Amino acid sequence: MEKSFDIEPVNQNEYVVRWASEGQTGESLVHTNPDFLAEVGLDAFDEQRVVEETTAYLAEHQPVIDFPQTVDLEEIAAAYSDYAEQLKARLEAR
Question: Which residues share a beta bridge with 17?
Fold first, then answer.
């Protein structure tokens, strides 16, 4: 299944993620919270890279057509207990 993502900063701590998958397109607004990033040990990484890896992580766990219109990293962490740990490993590997 072919997926592509375009990530663009729109405001401080906000990024629009545009996706295309299987002939469909959509977008989500991703909010990053600096306090949350510090709390889970992701504050040393570039926010846009965090959003990129978060998008890839979500795409592995649900169809992109099911991405919510608004995404908060805290909600992802609440839904997926390994999110912060996995994201940190991905970011350190790059």
Answer: 7, 28
**Tokens representing 48?**
């846009």
64 token code pair: 């992109």
Residues 53/91, Cβ–Cβ less than 8 Å: yes
Q: Does the pTM exceed 0.90? A: yes
Gap between the Cα atoms of 49 and 55, Å rounded: 10
Q: Alpha-carbon torsion 63, 9, 89, 38, what sign? A: negative
Q: What is the DSSP string of 25-63?
A: EEEEEEE--HHHHHHTT-TTS-HHHHHHHHHHHHHHHS-
Question: Rounded to 5, what percent of the chain is helix, strand, coil?
Answer: 45, 30, 25
Q: What is the pLDDT of residues 22-61, one digit of tens each?
A: 788 999 999 999 999 999 999 999 999 999 999 999 999 9
What is the token pair recorded at 5?
Answer: 């993502």
